[in-house]
Design goal:
By secondary structure, the chain is an alpha+beta fold. It has 11 helices and 23 strands. The model is unreliable at 104-127 (pLDDT under 50).
Length: 463
Amino acid sequence: MSDLPNLSERLKQKDILGFFSRSAVDKAFAYRAQGRVSGLEVSEDLTHVQARVSGTERKPYRVDIALEFDGDRLVDLDGDCSCPMAVNCKHVAATLFEALRSPAQAAGAVSQQPQGPAGNGRARPEAAVLPYQIAEWIETVGRSVRDTDYPPDVTQRLLYCLQPGVSGSGIPCMDVSLVSVKILKTGELGSKVSQPSFSEFSVDHAPKYYLGSDIDILTRLSSEFRSGYLFGRRAYSAEVLKWIVATGRAFWRDHSGAPLRWSEARDGRIEWRQVSKDGIGPLLIVEGATTLNAEPPVYVDEAAGLIGPIGLNLPGRLSSRLLLAPAIPHAHVAQVAQHLGQKLPGLDPGWLPEPPAAAVKINVDPEPVLRLMLGRKMTHAYYYGGDRTPDRVPVARVSFRYGPVEIEQSESAHRVESFSDGSIHVVTRRKAKEKEMAARLTSLGLVDARSAFPLLDAVHTRT
């Protein structure tokens, strides 16, 4: 090995760990220690490595590795192997671990063996390498006290971003996403990030830089991900959210700010309000904070960088299930409250849905609204001589505003219901007034846009 180009001068072991699964790395260490790598060749420019690795077959596997660098940084690792896995397997990793041994290490493996008891210069036999299953068991015992801090030589970090999940109505559930990023020499987070998925997380295929605490968290998250989906939404447990925050690597929405800190419980309340034009739903209120559904629900005080549980004097699972309620139409509110009271006889009636306030009737004249925009011509305009039509022309879409409600001119309904500011507003349109205003706009020189520019895209109809 001493005659080979020294790959370790350009590449460190930590640089390659992200290209292999956790299982492949563990087995590769054992393979290298067992002397299974032979015929090692490293190109002079340190971008090509070849070797043979003894595996489960009688004939050694052939390994061919291409390394791509950007300056001193490894940007790609493409390892081909003749084994069934074929790409970036344990044999590829074992080859690289062998190639990364410095000449001194390679020589020391032979010359630094202890001498025999009589000083006769004969080396004692090298201690046998433990079988992989035993070595892995010892490693598992060592990991039983979970690590929460990264060693100084590991620069890759796994971060957790917490944010509101997508919700059609009502309170959104807490959502969790992962970000992998490198720590720069300045101690800052690098700009190049990737987003691992935990929905298909497997301990055997976890990257080597995942800490033991991350393995525990992701195992729990993936379990809750698969089992916690209900009514189109998913409520994680507050316990696993607390674990995530305890890593010191949990952020609100993205990792540009400071990490979140877990805080004490804050009192909250549930109010049933109009959540859409379809009906009422529960809203969770904590003064000065964003509320999110979990088991139990949690708040986020973005200004203070705090997250914590919400005290509702309800069992955590029950409060979470109440907050998952879909929009309840007005006609069904009394029936829903009755059924809930029967299912939960000990529940305080104050937690049950109540009929909403009556719809607000709007009784005012309309006001015209012109929304200015640039109109574009249709995609296939060139078929019709569209090259003579400007690519962009100024157009305006007309609507009519009745108090807080805005109605498109294209709307045909005479009576319109609209949800705004937590209330249903009912507008009985004054069509005669709308026609008068449209006529006045015409008198000012406004015309139908597509009559002036026939090749405008269809989205500009009624402008």
